[in-house]
Amino acid sequence: MEVIVAKTPADMASAAAREVANVLNAKPNAVLGMATGSTPLGLYQELVRLHKKGELDFSHVTTFNLDEYVGLPITHPQSYHYFMHEHLFRHINIPPQNVHIPSGTTTNYRAFCEWYEQRIKQCGGIDLQILGIGTDGHIGFNEPGSSLTSRTRLKTLARQTIDDNARFFKNRDEVPIYAITMGVGTVLESKEIVLLANGKKKAEAIAAAVEGPVTSMITASALQLHPSTRVYLDEEAASHLKMREYFDWVQEKKPGAPQA
Ligand code: GLP
């Protein structure tokens, strides 16, 4: 894992956007894994800006979102379908048929989850997966206790996640209890992973994920098993890291490292 502490949220967003741009420049038909939540909003704004400037073309890109709430129609303002459309897809030139988001209203979740996994494989696997992190250390909706080899499936949300996400709904009772999410195993098959986190609220989860033991109690800790994960943080999210000085040293010395 590489840990990069950005000076400002804008720096974090542009560094993450550069990651996406590098992947698309090398492979215009890349497959991107997308995340929702407040954390990647700056990244999406930056991607839209680069697209409008003519610097990013999404016409051959395919996307797979991590998760969706069960029971919310795609027109619900808190559905992840709505979120992605509002914040990214309607502003860029991605063909609608290339966009995949788990269905929160399917009549057969098991069959849908199998199809989603197959579809990722058919498209050649995810080249770059964007992730946020929950305050309980989850990625996607892989709540504590999720198998680290799990695949796309239905999950029951933890109370802490329902509390955290209640701020987006009129009241807590409106927050769905179930979600459909890519598994930890699904995420780990991505070729590259970028995890974003900001704010004090995330500091403990980040320290556990980056420096703690690999455990299903903090599903983001499974990223320690992935060969190419970069973690972008702001100062607050990095504030509980014990290895902070080393992480900064690595970044400082990076330009001098042998390239081959
Ligand atoms: C939800 C999503 C996660 C996201 C997390 C953090 O639980 N399923 O993918 O990382 O929220 O959200 P935020 O970025 O708003 O803190």
Spatial order of strands in the largest sheet: 1-10-9-6-2-3-5
**Number of helical segments with 4 or more residues:** 8
Strand-and-helix sequence, N→C? EHEHEEHEHEEHEHEHEH
The shape is globular
User: Could you tell me how far the N terminus lies from the C terminus, measured between alpha carbons in angstroms?
Assistant: 19 Å
The overall strand count is 10
Radius of gyration: 17 Å
Major sheet, described briefly?
7 strands, parallel
Which ligands, by name, code or SMILES, are bound? 2-amino-2-deoxy-6-O-phosphono-alpha-D-glucopyranose
The average pLDDT score comes to 97
- Residue windows where pLDDT falls under 50 for at least 5 positions: none
The amount of helix comes to 25-40%
Beta content comes to 15-25%
Instruction: Quickly give the structural class.
Output: alpha/beta
Condensed summary:
With 260 residues, this protein is an alpha/beta fold. The chain has helices spanning 9-26, 41-52, 80-87, 109-122, 159-165, 184-188, 203-211, 244-253; strands at 2-5, 31-34, 62-65, 67-69, 99-100, 128-131, 153-156, 178-181, 192-197, 229-233. The site of 2-amino-2-deoxy-6-O-phosphono-alpha-D-glucopyranose has 14 residues, from helix 5.
Keywords:
three-stranded antiparallel sheet, seven-stranded parallel sheet, 8 helices, 260 residues, 32% helix, binds 2-amino-2-deoxy-6-O-phosphono-alpha-D-glucopyranose, globular
